[in-house]
Amino acid sequence: MSKISMELLRDINKDTIDYQDNYDGSEREPIVMPSRFPNLLVNGTSGIAVGMATNIPPHQLGEVIDGVLAISKDPDMTIMELMEIITGPDFPTAGMILGRSGIRKAYETGRGSITLRAKVEIEQKSNGKEVIIVRELPYQVNKAKLIEKIAELVRDKRLDGITDLRDESDRKGMRIVIEVRKDANANVLLNNLYKQTALQTSFGINLLALVDGQPKVLNLKQCLEYYLDHQVSSLDAAQSLNLGRLKHVPYSRRTANRA
User: What does the alpha-carbon distance between residue 181 and residue 192 come to, in Å, rounded to a whole number?
Assistant: First the structure.
């Protein structure tokens, strides 16, 4: 496990959380992890159950921690003020988020949709031809399937102006090369690619989580507030356990330890 993942389990042996039977009653399992960082927002999650679904995007760890600290100091801060700290989702494949309205709606209401677009560059070759270079893809877009889709559109003559398509990605990063026919306009072609392929997609945000065992749609501030409440409860439990153990330590040993 990575070092940060161990923070999910820290103090789990100090009665910080409750346990329940697993599916067949053969073992006991944690109801929730102690989680010394807001894992639900940092790593995101998605899932479907009967009549409900959750789709939470990942966020930048530092921003989320700063957001938690901010509301702990100022519980009355607004979501708009919080958005100055947590600026938006942070997708591992990078790409670009178009506009802020979708983010704002999701953070204020718990539901919203954002438009994701690949990061591309248009380069001019020495022979005068233009080349579209794809550097980053929208979240959850498969590179191989994207290339296959573009090739299919060209083959079926639904996309005109492409003379070559190749993948030059290496350990240094992604590089999908789309060569543009000399008499074609690269910007027009790129707009068609956005419309017909996964170079532009949408991501539906649904901040649905279990609160005291009940599904609830949360806004951004509520997500952080419930996390803070969980941490206070966990730390109180750990402190109570430590005090209980301390009562059973002989006075002479406690004095020696302090010395």
Answer: 15
Asked whether the beta carbons of 95 and 203 are under 8 A apart, the reply is: no
Measure CA 1 to chain center.
19
Radius of gyration of the chain (CA): 25
CATH number, span 3-114+205-242 = 3.90.199.10
Closest alpha carbon to 225 in 122, 192, 216, 30: 216
Name the token pair of 168. 């030059």
Neighbour count for residue 154 (Cβ, 10 Å): 17
Q: How is domain 119-198 classified at the CATH fold level?
A: Gyrase A; domain 2 (3.30.1360)
**The pTM is what?**
0.84
Cα separation of the two ends of the chain: 36
Contact 223, 207 (CB under 8 A): yes
pLDDT single digits (tens) 56-97: 999 999 999 999 999 999 999 999 999 999 999 999 998 999
User: How many CB atoms are closer than 10 A to CB 190?
Assistant: 21
* Structure tokens, 202: 């949408």
